[in-house]
Design brief:
This protein is mainly alpha-helical and about 475 residues long. It folds into 3 domains: about 170 residues, no CATH class; about 70 residues, no CATH class; about 100 residues. Helices cover about 65% and strands about 5% of the residues. It is built from 16 helices and 5 strands. It has a 3-stranded antiparallel sheet with strand order 3-4-5, with helices on one face. A two-stranded antiparallel sheet has the order 1-2. A hairpin with a 7-residue loop joins strand 4 and strand 5.
Length: about 475
């Protein structure tokens, strides 16, 4: 059942609105208590230009939102008329060089303008509908306390809306909040309450946004691109920006005046940057070649001496490429580590070379015996012999050679080669034994198995010799 006070409340609201709300808004209340829907305006999407205000007073144009990444700010610098589709150059500048208080206020103003031109009216109409629906629900509620709570909630949602929507229509919303405060006062009396909530009179009008700068001209974009080139600490970005500006200023229509002066400045700065790039490139290539050659010889001192050479050259060039210098010094550290490792290996080899000579002398007799058997192994591989009477003696000689080999203890560094020789002896013995069994049985399958073993023995013997030569060669010659 409708509360008897609601007709009086409705008249009060209508009377108050008629007295205090402009006619263009009051016409919107016909459909409900608080419908604020108004004619909508939709604008076509266009580029959004932000500004970065630097500590030194420089202003940079950002085509679209910029990004803060670690201690850098990444933005797209437009080159040319921004009303069209300008060329863009990606640039990063130090975060500490930006006046963030001024930049953030300007960015908020840009977003507010963009919001007003695109979504503002639609969202405002949605707010109107939600408030009207809430007031309709209040009108259908009989409990005075519940009506008051619903009105307070509607008032809070309305009051928060400007701050959450870039201050759009904040003045209009503030007027409506004031009217709703009067309604809430009436409802409070109807509910038998006399206390007054100070939050109801809070100011809902946000701080006025920063004034937007005019759309930059072609000249503005050129000059600010040059300013950005001076701020960025990335040489590649600086060179790219200067080249782009120089290309844009080569237009025959831009002759004389500011364009000629700016082109001369840009050309001079670009030439200087390219000279610096070449100087650092030459320094890097010559230093790397020298360091590599000295490290290959184990020349630790020689590699160390290159570090002050690089630092002096960097000082002479004005320390203009810190990253390239750091990378070059890091590479020298790697080459220095290589030289130290090689020098240690060379010294260790000098200490061990007598053991290597002794080992070679110890295994020489067994290797001579193995090489004498090579023609017989080749015959077995080719399935062409040797004579059956030779096979038992060959097998016996291989057994004895293997036993002699097993009695030799190699230096630890040569264990891999020693094991390969032992495997070669074992495989050769299996080849001779297999050939003898094939001859006795006349089994061709056994003959092929013996041939395969003979080929394996030859391969293992060759690999063992190569491994021994590698391990006993001085490190710098490997």
């Amino acid at each position: 059942m409708r509360s008897p006070s609601l007709p009086r409340l409705s008249k009060k609201v209508a009377g108050t609105f008629a007295a205090k709300v402009p006619a263009t808004l009051f016409a919107c209340f016909v459909a409900g208590f608080f419908a604020i829907a108004c004619p909508q305006r939709l604008y076509g999407a266009e580029s959004v230009l932000y500004r970065l205000f630097l500590m030194d007073g420089t202003t940079l144009i950002s085509y679209g939102e910029f990004s803060r990444v670690a201690d850098r700010v990444v933005l797209s610098i437009p080159l040319g008329a921004t009303e069209e589709a300008p060329a863009l150059e990606l640039v990063s500048i130090p975060e500490a060089s930006v006046d963030w208080d001024r930049t953030d206020r300007y960015s908020e103003a840009v977003r507010a303008k963009r919001y007003a031109e695109t979504r503002g009216e639609n969202d405002f109409a949605g707010l109107s509908n939600r408030v009207a629906e809430a007031l309709n629900q209040i009108a259908l509620t009989s409990d005075p306390a519940r009506r008051l709570a619903m009105a307070v909630e509607a008032r809070g949602n309305l009051a928060r809306w400007p701050a959450e929507n870039f201050g759009y229509r904040a003045t209009d919303v503030a007027q409506l909040v004031g009217l709703l405060d009067e309604v809430i006062s009436e409802l409070r009396v109807a509910a038998g309450q006399s206390s007054f909530d100070l939050s109801l009179v809070a100011n809902v009008t946000p701080t006025a946004p920063a004034e937007l700068l005019p759309t930059p001209s072609f000249r503005d974009t050129m000059e600010q691109a040059v300013a950005a080139a001076a701020v960025t600490t990335e040489p590649a970005e600086r060179v790219s920006l200067l080249r782009a500006v120089a290309t844009a200023l080569h237009d025959p229509a831009l002759t004389g005046g500011w364009a000629a002066a700016l082109n001369a400045r840009v050309s001079s700065e670009l030439a200087a940057e390219l000279r610096i790039d070449k100087s650092y490139g030459d320094l890097a290539s010559s230093t790397i070649a020298t360091a590599t050659a000295r490290a290959a010889r184990g020349d630790v001192t020689g590699v160390q001496l290159l570090v002050p050479v690089v630092l002096k050259a960097d000082d002479r060039l004005g320390r203009r490429r810190p990253r390239e210098t750091a990378a070059l010094l890091a590479l020298l550290d790697l080459r220095l580590d290589e030289a130290r490792r090689l020098r240690l290996a060379q010294d260790a080899w000098i200490v061990r070379q007598e053991l290597f000579r002794t080992y070679r002398a110890t295994i020489s007799a067994a290797l001579v015996e193995m090489r004498r058997l090579t023609p017989s192994l080749e015959s077995i591989r080719q399935l062409s012999g040797p004579a059956p009477g030779l096979l038992p003696r060959l097998e016996q000689r291989l057994v004895m050679a293997k036993q002699q080999w097993a009695a030799i203890t190699p230096p630890p560094e040569l264990q891999s080669a020693h094991d390969l020789f032992a495997a070669a002896f074992q495989t050769a013995r299996r080849a001779v034994s297999g050939r003898r069994n094939a001859v006795l049985s006349g089994d061709m399958k056994l003959a092929w198995e013996a041939s395969s073993a003979a080929a394996g023995a030859q391969m293992l013997l060759e690999r063992a010799g190569q491994e021994l030569d590698r391990l006993t060669t001085p490190p710098s010659n490997r």
